[in-house]
């Protein structure tokens, strides 16, 4: 008898994300067990409840999803989940997508890759020290791009670049501190692709400055909350040509993000040993981009 597909949703927020719950059900989850305000100290017992109730091939019918609005808290929960497994047999698959950071970053990098060959391109990430920006930078670096990440504080940008180098030793990446227009111009000089991944409602670059970037081929704004990060790009833009640049807004990227999210949740139930973080979720997105599913 085939076991029901059970997804255990671990959320550090006071209320488990309704958004993540709806996507999980649309992805084929048959039973959703939601836990809110989850602390690291509580993870082991929750994981043991998931892995000790089924065995053998049936373990693939149980999986864990880590969401919530706090990406750092989500990463801590993921680490605790992995520590709670017992070897390759007593474990279940787990996906991290706190605040949608992994699926959004994957969708954004895939969108850029439709129009430029990332390997050898220069990629600039405004808001590069935030959770989405860090993942965009990391994924682009893995594709062989030369990556620049920006912050108002140089030490933060350099620290973020160093952290990516630890994960991607071959990364060609540098951190920039930008406080004025001249520093932004130097940061963006000769960039082929621009991602704006700053905080909601924060304008990252004026339209006039962007139009002066003659090398820029693709501009992607991941903020849909007014004012948008890149003025002149509409949130709904999807491969829209503006001033000889291919432009994407947050909603334009969102369709791909949702497809990746649903596909990744569905993938959890194909095995009991998957860890779906940024790179694995990006690979699922690439698979979909090739017309599979």
Q: What kind of sheet is the major sheet?
A: 7 strands, mixed
Mass-distribution shape: elongated
> Strand pairing plus helix content: what structural class?
alpha/beta
| Strand portion | 15-25%
Radius of gyration, Cα only, in angstroms?
Answer: 20 Å
Number of strands: 12
Q: Helices and strands, in N-to-C order?
A: EHEHEHEHEHEHEHEHEEEHEH
Summarize model confidence as the mean pLDDT: 95
Q: Provide the helix percentage.
A: 25-40%
Short description:
40% of the residues lie in helices and 19% in strands. It has 293 residues and is α/β, with parallel strands linked by helices. The strands form two sheets. A seven-stranded mixed sheet has the order 7-6-5-8-9-11-10, with helices on both faces. Strands 2-1-3-4-12 form a five-stranded parallel sheet, with helices on both faces.
Provide keyphrases for this structure.
10 helices; alpha/beta; seven-stranded mixed sheet; 293 residues
Write a structural description.
With 293 residues, this protein is of the alpha/beta class. Helices cover 40% and strands 19% of the residues. It contains ten helices and twelve strands. The strands form two sheets. The protein has a seven-stranded mixed β-sheet, sandwiched between helices. Strands 2-1-3-4-12 form a five-stranded parallel β-sheet, sandwiched between helices. The two termini are 27 Å apart.
Helix and strand arrangement:
Layout: E1 6-10, H1 18-26, E2 31-35, H2 40-51, E3 62-66, H3 71-83, E4 93-96, H4 101-113, E5 122-126, H5 131-142, E6 146-151, H6 154-167, E7 172-177, H7 181-188, E8 193-196, H8 207-211, E9 218-221, E10 238-242, E11 245-248, H9 250-268, E12 275-276, H10 278-289
Parallel strand pairs: 1-2, 1-3, 3-4, 4-12, 5-6, 5-8, 6-7, 8-9, 9-11
Antiparallel strand pairs: 10-11
Helix pairs in contact: 2-3, 4-5, 4-9, 4-10, 9-10
């Amino acid at each position: 008898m085939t076991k029901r597909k059970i997804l255990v949703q671990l959320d550090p927020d006071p209320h488990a994300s309704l958004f993540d719950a709806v996507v999980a059900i649309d992805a084929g989850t048959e039973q959703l067990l939601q836990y809110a305000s989850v602390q690291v100290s509580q993870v082991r017992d929750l994981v043991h409840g998931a892995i000790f109730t089924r065995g053998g091939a049936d373990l693939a019918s149980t999986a864990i999803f880590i969401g919530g609005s706090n990406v750092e808290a989500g990463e801590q929960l993921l680490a605790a989940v992995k520590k709670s497994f017992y070897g390759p047999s007593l474990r279940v698959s787990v996906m991290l997508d706190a605040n949608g950071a992994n699926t959004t970053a994957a969708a954004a990098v895939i969108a850029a890759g439709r129009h430029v060959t990332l390997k050898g391109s220069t990629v600039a990430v405004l808001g590069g020290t935030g959770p989405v920006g860090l993942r965009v930078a990391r994924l682009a670096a893995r594709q062989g791009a030369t990556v620049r990440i920006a912050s108002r504080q140089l030490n933060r940008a350099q620290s973020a670049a160093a952290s990516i180098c630890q994960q991607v030793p071959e990364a060609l990446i540098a951190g920039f501190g930008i406080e004025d227009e001249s520093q932004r111009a130097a940061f963006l000089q000769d960039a082929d692709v621009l991602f704006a991944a700053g905080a909601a409602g924060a304008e990252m670059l004026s339209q006039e400055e962007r139009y002066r970037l003659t090398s820029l081929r693709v501009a992607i704004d991941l903020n849909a909350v007014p004012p948008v990060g890149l003025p002149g790009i509409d949130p709904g833009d999807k491969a829209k040509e503006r001033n000889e640049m291919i432009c994407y807004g947050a909603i334009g990227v969102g369709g791909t993000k949702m497809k990746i999210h649903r596909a990744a949740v569905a993938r959890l139930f194909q095995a009991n040993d998957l860890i779906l973080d940024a790179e694995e979720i990006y690979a699922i997105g690439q698979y979909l981009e090739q017309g599979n599913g």
